[in-house]
User: Fold these one by one.
Assistant:
Number 1:
Amino acid sequence: MRWSRMFIPTLRENPADAEVVSHKLLVRAGYIRQLTAGVYSLLPLAERVRLKVINIIREEMNRIGAQEFLLPALHPAEIWKESGRWDVMGDNLFKLRDRKGGEMAMGMTHEEVFTSIARGAINSYRQLPQVWYQIQTKFRDEARPKSGLLRVREFTMKDAYTFDVDREGLDKSFQDQHDAYCRIFSRCGLKFVAVEASSGAMGGSQSTEFMVRTDAGEDLIASCAKCGYAANVEKATSRLSPVTGDDGGPQSPEEFPTPGIRTIEALAKFEGGAAADRQIKTLVYLLDDKLTLVLMRGDHELNETKLTDATGALTIRPAQPEEIRAALGALPGSLGAVGVTGASHKAVTRVIADHALRGRRNMTTGANRDEYHLRGVDVDRDISVEQWSDLRSIKAGESCPVCDGQLEVFKAVEIGHIFKLGTKYSQSMGAFISTADGAETPIVMGSYGIGVERVLVSAVELYNDEAGIIWPASIAPFQAIITPVNIKDADQARIAEDLYTQLESAGIEVLLDERDERAGVKFNDADLIGVPFRLTVGKKVKDGKVELMTRATRRSEDVGLDSIVGELRSRLPM
């Protein structure tokens, strides 16, 4: 391809609204343009990268025996209601009505559609296992689209689904997909980590996220360099240091005044108060509209995703002050769970506590009387805890749950997510099969997704410098660019054309910058768009040589004209 015939609208300045590196560079280098909030047009260079990522995905999916589909993006509401996700997805699901008033949705994922196909055609164990996938446009009504292609309302996803007779079959399918994902991301040139994750609204028993470490990410990952443990903070655990001070104190809860005290920090400084790790923090939530007390150690923070996963709640929100006052008789800052049972507190449906409070004694908590607290609280004796769960957010520096190492916490971008769905969808949507002994059982499913544009963005976040993008050769829009220093020089123009023809004939994707521009302009543009190798055709052509510059290292060397094809082939992925 010739530069003069391509649409590459490079810019010299960063867009004013761009916050992260990938957004700035993809706009400046002429890869993307915004249509509206969260909706982007991919220009020719970006589409070439996207198609290369898709080709790698397709090859690895086919390698494990997956069959490719193309399903509708427009879905009837009925199938989402069958699975129970019509309401669960809330405002994230684009909803509309057709001209007859029928409810429809724009697909943000395709579990329901694939399950509806399976239930109508698969009825025997002999037809399983099946591995199906598609590469399709998805839609999500993102509340706060930002960061270029990282948080958008329209995107390309590879979603795959496996159908097995039993859990053992699912285990194998899950591992096949896991291994395929590792190959895909490695071939795309990404540095990534696979981490334990929450299944969220997808449901199921187990999930793994594939994450790329970058400050542009909105996920937080906890990892241990010593043993390799890694998990999203929504799932991560740690070992806490042993606590002291549980002995002593009053033999039963003792009320004491705490005028003006509203926070954990203030009570820790208050004379007669208690250190944060000796306090019980009482949070009031509505889980599926039922008032629930959530108890945490004073120095710990609640992770709401863990609370959702632990309770299975479809809706979750903090209670409002008036709701709290009506239920407990006090406002936040003086709340507690001691004695919150029986007829006097019918508004409170249950008490859930974090594991860090189990067995604790001589603790301090609110008295459910404004500006009063209780000391000497024995959690097991004085509080009726209905459910114990891991609810806290871990912090950097805490001890690894697997070894004696310490946890690091860093930002990351999710590029892929795989789920063991089990029978969540087959059960609710009636996808059953007959087993070898004649019994009827729901199909056991798995779901596996890759955000195609997120792979592209992650590569830019990982590989860039002050001059622009540095693409991995496997997904670069072009593998090499030929830059004649002076296109008006007859020898340079002729050699550039000859090289262009040779490289194209050798199957090397090459861009010829034959514009009548200053050399500096062309060099800057080549660096900005990130082509892995630049061939500079200058005065040395008289000696039969051109300059080969490697974009990633900026190292240049003179190479003979008759050696160029071989040199590039040796450096490019097969």
Number 2:
Amino acid sequence: MSQETKTDFGKWRSFFWPVHSYELKKLLPMFIMFLCISFNYTILRDTKDTLVVTTSGAEALPFLKVWGVVPAAIIFMLIYAKLSNILSKEYLFYSAIAPFLIFFTAFVYLLFPNREILTPHASADYLQSILPVGLGGLVACYRNWTLSLFYILAELWGSAVLSLMFWGFANEIMKVTEAKRFYTLLGLGANVALVLSGPAIMFVSNVREKLPPEVDAWQYSLNWLMTMVVVAGIIIVAIYWWMNRNVLTDSKFYDPTEEKKVKKSKPKMGIFESFAFLVKSKYILSIAILVISYGICINLVEVTWKSQLGLQYPDKNDYNFFMGLFSTCTGVVTIIMMFIGGWVIREKGWGVAAMMTPIVLLITGVAFFSFVIFRENLGAYIAYLGTTPLFLAVVFGMIQNIMSKSTKYSLFDPTKEMSYIPLDQESKVKGKAAIDVVGARLGKSGGSFIQQGLLLVFGSIALITPYVGIAMIVFIVAWMFAVRSLNKQFVALTTDAKSTATPSPRLANDKKETVTSVS
């Protein structure tokens, strides 16, 4: 093999697999851990939507996100920050994940089978009679409070376990050079999870023909889904325990002495001092704008799409089957996007990679809302295709969600997590807790507040759709400005860190010139 051929082969190998063999001991456990967390995230996401949309209606979603998820996220963040000053990092992880696994077990065996006994029909009917029509979704949240509680805990899994606990752990033990090579590959775990969880959801949702008539098919499906969630949760805990004893004790993979020096150089701050620090930090605020804008934009689109989906599939198993198909397609597309995203981050830089997600959301979001708003004018063309406007709206929304989620997993999440790495330990731990748990919830609640206000005025999701589309465009533009600002700060911080580590005056001057040219 010629030298030129070897060089070309090396380039292609680094494109698809930029990992040294000795690094697999660190990468593979993290990959499996992320796969299991994402597997649960997909099952919980699809199941919570099925439960709420087919029972309470899509109008309940904005109220649940604001009056249920946000208070729960704040409570979780406060408890987590308090426990972080008391428990070791290892026991903090166990203490945070255990309540989720206990609740999902209790829900499927206690709360859901007895939901009719626990439903306050009388007081809910009274509230329905005295409140405006636009608050019907809020009454539905109260009436079906067991399902609402499941929705809240399922939503928190994504923020608490996926964003805060896993990525916090990854940022703590990864170097910037490792993150550039590993993070997109870790993201493949999320998409392998989608490819696995999608068919699993479809299989357990398509069981009615195999069960006797007296058996509740949805209860049967739910039992299997939550069993998978608990088993995957146990695997997550086991891997984390193993890594603390077999990986983090190896100096090749983790050097705790550097972390101790950082901790001694900066005293711990209390909860309220942490919030004050975040407000004063332009860098942290820029990250927060990214997270909040994404949450608002995706929420504005999803609620409109799920309202169409609930009309198309009113049966729980049918709805969940479609969501399983959606998750599978999302996984396949995102796996392809992961390789593209990894190349973009390595070759084009952080700024280009971070800007791609809002651009994709803008294009696909405008296309979806345009079809929903003007589909009645396309009746002749839709009839020619042999389908219905409602089904096509579901398909358009599915395409939009697949593209937005694939860019999130392949570009938004890796670039967002990389932006934490140059920060000191205090900013990483408490700044990340505030942004990922509360900031992400505020993003979704912001979209929900917009929808709630519009629902009070117009009364239905169908009537508020044009205004929701306009709001989405406004927040995407703000998101793009935040990316541009954060890119300049990120490049400056990472270049300063390299200059400090290499005390060559000539190299320092070269890097300063590079920062100036990039900015």
